[in-house]
Amino acid sequence: PPRSTLFPYTTLFRSRLQRWFKLYNARYFGGRLVARVRFRPLESCWAQAFGGEPPEIHVGLTCAVSRGWTKLTLLHEMVHLELWPEVSHGRRFQARMLELAKAGAFKDMW
After folding, report:
1. With pLDDT > 70 as the criterion, what percentage of the chain qualifies?
2. All residues at 6 or more sequence positions from 78 whose CB lies less than 8 Å from its CB, including other chains
3. How far apart are the first and last CA of the chain?
4. At residue 39, does pLDDT exceed 80?
5. Mean of pLDDT values over 68-97
6. Predicted local confidence at residue 75, as pLDDT
């Protein structure tokens, strides 16, 4: 869709992403994560942290198909930032995701 039709949705969605990030950061990560959360409609979803730059989480439309899927994706990317520079979905990542599930982080998301 043209940018003009996405703009109102984009502005609302960005504010929701920021609100969810702050909530999850406080509730499940002890407020330790510092990141800019960006809604990039034409991108997929990923997290990055480069030396000297604030970490970022990018969420695109491919990951924003529903409220639950978007929240799940955001938590997924937050775990990547928490475990940085480890970027795999290996044993530590899986263990952390299970901890979040046991803590109720994914309740009503699927």
Report:
1. 85
2. 21, 24, 25, 28, 29, 33, 35, 47, 57
3. 28
4. no
5. 91
6. 94
Residues sharing a CB contact under 8 Å with residue 48, sequence separation 6 or more, in sequence order: 55, 56, 58
Q: How far apart are CA 38 and CA 57, in angstroms?
A: 6
* Token pair recorded at residue 39: 């809604």
Instruction: Report d(CA 35, CA 57) in Å as an integer.
Output: 7
What amino acid occupies position 47?
A
pLDDT, tens digit, 9 for 90 and up, residues 10-23: 677 788 888 999 99
Q: What is the pLDDT of residue 109?
A: 80
The 3-class secondary structure across 54-105, one letter per residue, is CCEEEECHHHCCCHHHHHHHHHHHHHHHHCCCCCCCCHHHHHHHHHHHHCCC
- Reduced to 3 states (helix: H, G, I; strand: E, B; else coil), residue 11 is helix
Entry pTM: 0.83
Tokens coding 31:
């407020």
